[in-house]
What we know:
The structure holds two protein chains of two kinds.
Chain A (H helix, E strand, L loop, with lengths): L2 H19 L7 H9 L3 H6 L6 E5 L4 H13 L5 E3 L7 H11 L10 E5 L5 H5 L6 E4 L7 H4 L2 H14 L4 E5 L3 H10 L2 E7 L26 E7 L2 E5 L12 E9 L2 E8 L2 E7 L6 H14 L4 H9 L7 E7 L2 E7 L3 H12 L5 E6 L19 H5 L4 E7 L3 H11 L6 E3 L3 H9 L5 E6 L1 H14 L1 E2 L12
Parallel strand pairs in A: 1-3, 1-4, 2-3, 4-5, 5-6, 6-9, 13-17, 14-15, 14-17, 15-16
Antiparallel strand pairs in A: 7-8, 9-10, 10-11, 12-13, 12-18
Chain B lengths: L1 E6 L10 H12 L5 E6 L12 E4 L4 H13 L1 H9 L3 E5 L1 H6 L2 E3 L5 E3 L7 E19 L2 E16 L7 E5 L9 E2 L1 E3 L2 E4 L5 H4 L1 H14 L12 H14 L2
Parallel strand pairs in B: 1-2, 1-3, 3-4, 4-12, 5-7
Antiparallel strand pairs in B: 5-6, 7-8, 7-9, 9-10, 11-12
Helix pairs in contact in B: 1-6
Amino acid sequence: MNIKLMIAVIAAKLAASLSRMFGGKGSSLPGVVARRIYQGTLRDLAKQARKDIIMVTGTNGKTTTNNMIASVIASTGCKIVINQEGANLITGVTTAFIRYANWLGRIDCDYALLEVDEASFPKVLREISPQMVVVNNFFRDQLDRYGELDKTVTLVREALKDLPQVHLILNSDDPLVAQMQQATGHSATFFGLAPNQRPATGSQQTREARFCPMCGEELQYENYQYSQLGSFVCPGCSFKRPEPEIEGFAIETVGSVLNASVKYHQAMTTLSIHTHGFYNVYNALAAFTVGSLIGIKPEQIAKGLLTYRPAIGRMETFFYQGKPAILNLVKNPTGYNEGVNSLLSIAGTKTVFMAINDNDADGKDISWLWDVDFEHMVKANHEIELFVCSGLRAEEMALRLKYAGIPLEQITVIKEMEPAIKKALEGPGKLTYLFSTYTALWSAQKILLALAEKEVPHAEGVSSIS
Amino acid sequence: MLKVCHLYPDLLNLYGDRGNIIAFVQRCHWRGIPVEVVEVNVGESVDFEEIDFLFLGGGSDREQNLMAADLLLRKESLRQAIEKGLVVLAICGGYQMLGQYYLTHEGQKIPGLGILDLYTRAGEKRLIGNIVIESSINGVPVKIAGFENHSGQTFIGDMEPLGKVVSGFGNNGQDHLEGARYKNVFCSYLHGPLLPKNSSLTDLLIQLALQRRGLESTLSQLNNDLEEAAVGVIVERLVK
């Protein structure tokens, strides 16, 4: 029996109860407590996973991808440990294991599914050796916390290099991600989208990687999916988009369901997922890849993905007096652009709510708002009569809209969240679309839960998976 | 017709830089002043004499090196245009680039364009955070707010600063000065970006650009309530 571990776990569990009593989420404090008492807590807990430890890192879609993998694996009856709700620093990862451990520090699980923040990734890898690592994409995110994108990519690459053995699951369409196989020398499986899977309305402005990560030459693209994702080839060296083993195509949104076909080796299957947003196909493909690598049959993976429900603020849907309201977390230009595109792809009138905070966890620098193409919304002006801006930096959000060309009389600033959300829910649109940065998300969700009803899953638009 | 030149928008696109272009253009539009934007990337030709407002932003290290190589080739024509009153806004890396040199941690002097008499040396820690400075625009004291994020520390000697630091770090975290001004060249570490919120500075740049062409430079008043409110949030937070 590992006495130190036991004491650490007990103390952490007590801290969790106390924290909850005082209204906290308890998603990182227990980890902090346990690690202070016994540094080996995470290491000792993690090695109890009977099968694999699977990590997800990258900029956008970590939570969604990890939860999709969980839906797939849990559907086979396997036991999992997962860190939910974006608690993805080392303390959050430790907390996840503690939550699943009994008082003796024992965990009964087959798989540990961990989303890990890019900046914390090297630290976590020093304590846990994953069998698989999924890297989805790299975009500019919260610059004031991490320094520039180059540094983040290097951090992840070097940490992977230091691992003696790991299998990588990589997005073939993002050059910053696809380079990881060559750059680290590990084995890899690539997933990606067939060329030209989206209408040409995507943002042209924020492209993060113009240059070959191997030789520095400017990359050439045959086509773009969004941001720097697409079919790239380097004229200077042999680096180009790897042919994905798992390839998605025929993407469509029907009702509240996203459908996509997947080609793998010689076979094909169709996936249906309860979510919106083109980019979520990438997350589903990553989950599909993980599932097939651990030997789950494609039909079973599809069934598992169908059970997936968006986590807080990942296209979470509510109904206010029968009117849908969609809550969407935004934290960087690419994610916000995709959110705006997904908003514009929904037919009918809309009311838009935008909550921008600039606390530590949001990124104190909100200049990235000026890299988002809100100008696209001007064309759809007749469909959006009201924009409600809220949060600590509501004025800056409103200013951004003004300079995008939205008429002033359509912009309202209400700094306090509750009246602002109420105003948006009661707005003229047939649907309310709510954008929120990280620290405004929890209160936004709380207010929505109080005012509106959470979506009841329905079968509309689900294609047959048999 | 005012001609706005965004230099290297491909490379220097950090920190919402293009918000500065958007602000300049919109405030012209709203007043019925015709304006056009030309984007000039590495290797493309541009005649600075024909430009009315030049914007030079900052980028990540690798990208900044690429632009520096290209900009050095245009040094003389840029210098001449500046001496003749070209209106320039240079932020962060662009600001450093206009100076004499950048002194690295290793003691290496990377030459700048040498157009302005200032230099930058690598600092120990990054200077990051919201910042408020006090400047004077057409003789009126104005608070300018933004966000700074730089490791280079710039020293401007006898040059005129853009303003005095009220709260934040400024050029180097030591002398309480922020930015620099020479003729119609404005330099600053403030992004956020700088021009959308700080509308009186934007209007000054428009005025100077019009004056240089001998055009009517009295600007009609615009509603600046949102701009002032956005600056107010930061001022209220930092200045008590």
